[in-house]
Design goal:
The protein is an alpha/beta fold and about 400 residues long. It is about 40% helix and about 20% strand. A five-stranded parallel sheet has the order 3-2-1-4-5, sandwiched between helices. It has a five-stranded antiparallel sheet with strand order 10-9-8-13-14. Strands 6-7-12-11 form a four-stranded antiparallel sheet, with no helix packed on it.
Length: about 400
């Protein structure tokens, strides 16, 4: 352990990372620098630098990463329609590589030999953090205290905090494990560990229950440029402020709540409740606009890659060469995904009412059920169908 002189710790100021900060100092006899990333989680960050220093950190970084998170992680993934196992919009998965990136950058700046995180040895986040670090700077050691120490329970952590004079407010144990950022909130654990038990109303943060949503629908427009949302009702926003604004309007109408059992990358099934109002609206509107602007074969090719692309992100391979190569293909496909989608939000639903684009591939003269003799010769379809069915006829003759 003597080769570890300085560690950069992903620090939230809560019980786990406060204990980890002090434990690192004692276990590794090293200096600890902390990084607190503001990804829009809404937690109170005032005083967190002072708290880290008081707990023993030699330096404390507190950084607002909301715009970078939305611009460089959320939007690229949503350009690709990334959705894990057909439902999960990857709210936690997309945040981890950005935190890991800043850990690596600060470690290099501070001359640290290691980075540390508070993820347990049972979940996905340990994989995401550590693969990201390996992909950015494989010379850095990654310390995962939950896989090393003998503190096995919350009570053990509380006792450690008291013994070391760490100021942790004594609160009722949260019934769930909660992750929050600009894009979503997730709830796991507690009564949710029984997949038959209905999730309580308290899991409806960021969005109201559908039963409590307004009885009157709301109509909005969402403008896209090259696959990215840029304006709501004609008013342009930065990436982060756009997601925040959509969270408010979507949450008001009960949009974006998901209850599912998923397959963790470590091999077990896990039940989670995810609340992603703004992301749900973006995903739905983007898919609708692609129907107007994407070539059929390009869309079908990209769609065939969505499960693999989403798995890359979910499993922590954001900085892997295969994800970067696939992102290049996705971004090429989005060059003409520009236009406006008109949406109705009502009782948890997002309904497309209309869409338009300067790059529309839709031809009314071809699609019409009215007189089309100057645009389409219907008799051409006969030979086309005969060729499509040639192998089917041949198969039946052989039998």
């Amino acid at each position: 352990m003597s080769d570890i002189k300085k560690v950069v710790l992903a620090y939230s100021g809560g019980l786990d990372t406060s204990v980890i900060l002090r434990w690192l100092i004692e276990a590794y006899d090293c200096e600890v620098v902390t990084l607190t990333a503001d990804l829009g989680q809404g937690e109170e960050l005032d005083g967190i630098e002072e708290k880290a220093l008081k707990t023993g950190a030699v330096k404390a970084y507190v950084e607002d990463l909301r715009e970078e998170f939305a611009r460089d992680y959320v939007f690229p993934a949503y350009r690709g329609g990334a959705i894990y196992e057909g439902r999960y919009l990857l709210g936690t998965s997309l945040a981890r590589p950005l935190i890991a990136k800043r850990l690596v950058e600060i470690a290099e700046l501070e001359g640290a030999q290691a980075v540390a995180h508070g993820a347990t040895g049972k979940g996905n986040d340990q994989v995401r953090f550590e693969l990201a670090v390996m992909g950015l700077n494989p010379e850095l050691k990654v310390i995962a205290p939950w896989r090393e120490w003998d503190l096995l329970s919350r009570s053990d952590l509380m006792d450690f905090a008291v013994q070391h004079g760490i100021n942790i407010p004594v609160t009722r144990r949260k019934p769930w494990s909660i992750d929050a950022n600009l894009l979503h909130m997730s709830f796991e654990g507690g009564e949710l560990e029984d997949p038959w038990t209905e999730a309580p109303r308290e899991c409806h943060r960021m969005t109201v229950p559908m039963e409590d949503a307004p009885d009157e629908a709301e109509i909005i427009t969402l403008d896209f440029e090259r696959g990215d949302p840029v304006a709501i009702n004609g008013v342009r926003h930065s990436p982060a402020s756009l997601v925040e604004a959509l969270n408010k309007v979507g949450g008001k109408h009960g949009v974006g709540r998901l209850d599912m059992v998923e397959n963790r990358c470590v091999g077990m099934k896990s039940r989670g409740v995810y609340v992603t109002p703004g992301g749900t609206i973006i995903h739905f509107a983007h898919r609708d606009l692609e129907g107007l602007t994407l070539d059929r074969e390009v869309m079908h090719l990209r769609d065939s890659l969505i499960p693999r692309y989403a798995e890359m992100i979910y499993n922590g391979f954001w900085f892997a060469p295969e994800r970067e190569c696939l992102q290049a293909l996705i971004d090429k496909s989005q060059e003409r995904v520009t236009g406006t989608v008109r949406l109705k939000l009502y009782k948890g639903h997002v309904i497309a009412l209309g869409r338009k684009s300067p790059y529309s591939l839709y031809s009314e003269s071809l699609a019409t059920f009215e007189d089309d003799k100057d645009a389409y010769d219907q008799s051409d379809a006969e030979g086309f169908i005969r060729l499509l069915g040639l192998r089917l006829k041949g198969r039946m003759r052989k039998e």
